[in-house]
Write a structure and sequence with these properties.
Number of helices: 13
Oligomer: single chain
Structural class: alpha+beta
Helix content: 40-55%
CATH topology of the largest domain: Alpha-Beta Plaits
Radius of gyration: 21 Å
CATH class of the largest domain: Alpha Beta
Number of strands: 4
Shape: elongated
Strand content: 5-15%
CATH superfamily of the largest domain: Nucleoside diphosphate kinase-like domain
Order of helices and strands: HHHHEHEHHHEHHHEHH
Length: about 250
Amino acid sequence: MSNPALVCALRRIDAFRVLADALERLTQCREKLRKSDGLLQTVMAMTPEVTFRQAVIIFTEMDFVTEHASVLLKPVCFSYLVRQSQRRHAESLLTFLQTGAQILCTVLLIKPGAWSHSLARILRKLDLEKFSVVGMKHINLEPDIALGLLSSEVRQDPAVLEAHRTYLTSGTALVLCLQRPNAVKKLIDLLGPEDPKLARALDPFLWRAQYGISTVQNGFYGSKSYQIAVRDMKLFFPEGLCCAECQTLEEEEV
């Protein structure tokens, strides 16, 4: 009780695991901290229930300003990084903790060849995972758009880059806009690693493990982050989406 403590409230997707991993790495550096006269000691809430109780005790509703459009996952963990939105939209984070997860959208592109043979099964899997399809179209990818879907690692190797681009533009792809709570992370978790062999080694039920042939013909592209999902929705569905609840494009419009 002789020294003050700093209490933080942080918010992000998969907050509990990410914060726990960060604190574990910090623990591994404690030897260096001891040499500098200060040993940092940290405590975090481990469950949503404890998070809420501690937040109510320590903070008031007026202490929080949350960005409505960027809420990716509820529950959030006890330590919230607070920032104002572009629209200066203020709301009670404590109220948000009680109301549940916000429905968001993400983009799934089923690559040429994969959707024509397995569309019914893929749609069934999406339904079982509580995804709603709010946008769907066939598309022949232009080379520059195909390039924009590739990771920076792929772009570093000209031969690999050309293999991906050739395959993505070789036929018709099916683009879906999907909606559900925590949509971006849920879809990425279902797809698994981009290498089907690695996916099969981790879990044979991962989608790329089941439908992928190689790192190039791996069946699917999925938006890897919330920001990329917004970009992909604007790219593939500029005409809008058939959902009233998902206002991602409207909220993110500058």
